[in-house]
Write a structure and sequence with these properties.
single chain; about 400 residues; mainly alpha; flat
């Protein structure tokens, strides 16, 4: 065997061509191809069988390897497209196969064996393959048509049976409607007679009851009016009592609150008064204490104005917080007096207004609220003393300067 024969027998185009023929001759493709694309599959089978008659006559020693390489590549592309069609049933793959087969026809015609005329038997085989594909499709179509006709016949028979049942049911329904109409007319006549009798009896009874109730209505209304007036009087008394209790309770609570405020103000005023007295005594002691100590010593006492004036600034520094505490104590004492006065008014106002005319009592309460419970100031002697002390200190400082 020559090397050209060995190369051809092991070439990829031989394996690819056998694979393509197996796929094309697979009868499963007939079930997958729709009616509109049967011609595509028939043409593929016709071309493949035609090219196979050429492929079997190839002389390896007369065929260039470049042509065999191109035949192998295009054959592999055809097989790939057919496998894709079997996977997703997209007819576009069949169109692509026919396109690649056009290229294969061109390549096969470049082989020297392609010049040989195909025999009658081979041509008959091409045509038979092309026709068998259409016959397979026609058989599937006839089978589907027969199945559909059988289904239509069965549906017609079922519909006819259903129509007969409906007709029988309609006849029965018509008879029932006639019977029902007769019964309704009979019952309607009886109902009208009974209704007229009942209406006459009801109207007569209603007139009797209205006459009876009209005679008793005035008496009952008078009794009810009397009871209502009594209840309203009782409710009015209860309302007044509740209002008085409420006012007393509110005044008592407020009086207690003002008492608590007054006690707090008194405590603050006492503490501040103590601090003011302490700082006054301390400031005075800074000036007087050294003189007193020197007076009781054994040595002869000589009073020095200059030394005393040296201690005056220290005393003034101590007098400042003393004045401040005195002022704050006076303010808290004023607040205590105001709260005590409000407490006294709240606790004594109700007994005075209880025996007065309600309108005048209300006016008195409004007047008291405007005059007493507003922000008032109490002028007492402590404020005047405080002002006098401050003025004296200012005059003393002016003299020292």
């Amino acid at each position: 065997m020559s090397r050209w024969m060995e190369s051809f027998s092991s070439h990829q185009s031989v394996t690819n061509w056998d694979t393509l023929k197996d796929i094309v001759l697979d009868t499963a493709l007939d079930e997958m191809v729709p009616e509109s694309s049967v011609a595509e599959l028939a043409r593929i089978r016709k071309v493949v069988q035609y090219l196979d008659s050429i492929f079997t006559k190839i002389d390896p020693e007369l065929t260039p390897m470049a042509i065999l390489n191109n035949i192998g590549k295009n054959t592999q592309l055809c097989a790939t497209e057919l496998n894709n069609f079997k996977g997703n049933k997209n007819v576009g793959h069949l169109n692509n196969v026919n396109t690649h087969l056009d290229t294969l026809i061109t390549l096969f015609h470049q082989i020297p064996a392609a010049s040989l005329v195909a025999s009658k038997q081979e041509v008959k085989g091409f045509v038979s393959t092309y026709a068998s594909t259409f016959n397979s499709s026609l058989k599937r179509f006839n089978s589907s048509v027969d199945t559909a006709l059988h289904l239509v016949d069965d549906s017609i028979k079922e519909l006819q049976a259903e129509i007969e049942l409906r007709r029988s049911a309609l006849k029965d329904l018509e008879v029932q409607l006639k019977n029902t109409d007769q019964v309704i007319q009979k019952q309607t006549a009886e109902f009208n007679n009974q209704f007229q009798n009942s209406e006459q009896s009801r109207a007569k009874r209603f007139d009797e009851l209205m006459k009876e109730y009209s005679d008793n209505a005035d008496d009952e209304f008078e009794k009810l009016a009397t009871k209502t007036a009594t209840i309203l009087d009782v409710l009015g008394n209860l309302q007044r009592d509740a209002q008085e209790v409420y006012d007393v309770t509110i005044n008592t609570v407020q009086a207690g609150a003002y008492s608590g405020y007054a006690n707090e103000e008194r405590k603050k005023a006492n503490r501040l008064s103590f601090l003011a007295a302490f700082f006054f005594i301390l400031g005075t002691g800074v000036i007087i204490a050294p003189e007193v100590v020197n007076f009781f010593r054994d040595i002869e006492y000589v009073w020095s104005l200059q030394k005393s004036l040296y201690r005056v600034p220290i005393s003034i520094i101590l007098f400042v917080p003393a004045f401040y505490f005195a002022k704050e104590s006076s303010r808290h004492r004023t607040n205590e007096v105001v709260n005590r006065r409000r407490q006294h008014i709240l606790t004594t106002l109700d007994p005075y207004t209880k025996l007065m005319d309600p309108k005048r009592a209300e006016e008195l309460k409004i007047h008291v609220a405007k005059t007493v419970f507003s922000d008032i100031k109490v002028n007492n002697k402590e404020d005047a003393d405080y002002q006098s002390i401050v003025e004296r200190v200012k005059g003393l400082l002016d003299k020292v300067k």
